Amino acid sequence: MTFSTKKTGDKGEELAVELLESKSYTIIKRNYRYGKGEIDIIAKDPQEEGLVFIEVKSRKSLEYGSPEEAITKNKIKQLKRIAELYLYENEIKEILCRFDVIAILMLPGEKPQIEHYVNAFD
What we know:
single chain, Trna Endonuclease, Chain: A, domain 1, 5 strands, 2 helices, globular, 122 residues, five-stranded mixed sheet, alpha+beta
């Protein structure tokens, strides 16, 4: 990962947190790492019980596709595995969980376009 890519990702995560907080979500954890994997944001939705595991994808252009297209089947499998490890590590049992995606397109000279996909995958 280049410095530029990391910088774009960090900015995207900041925008995602701002969006979630504006919707009254409670941020529980950011950048939960386990092994080589990471969950960007773990939060509580004020409208629902349980936890929300959130993947943030940011792009500065559409050269490599939209942010949403970066969520592959392997990425989904990895996110689910890391979420299970988070629950196990924190001794959390019998809780509802969902996975959201926040896609951010930051084209130069334009306001960032942010899409929040609730319950993006099972």
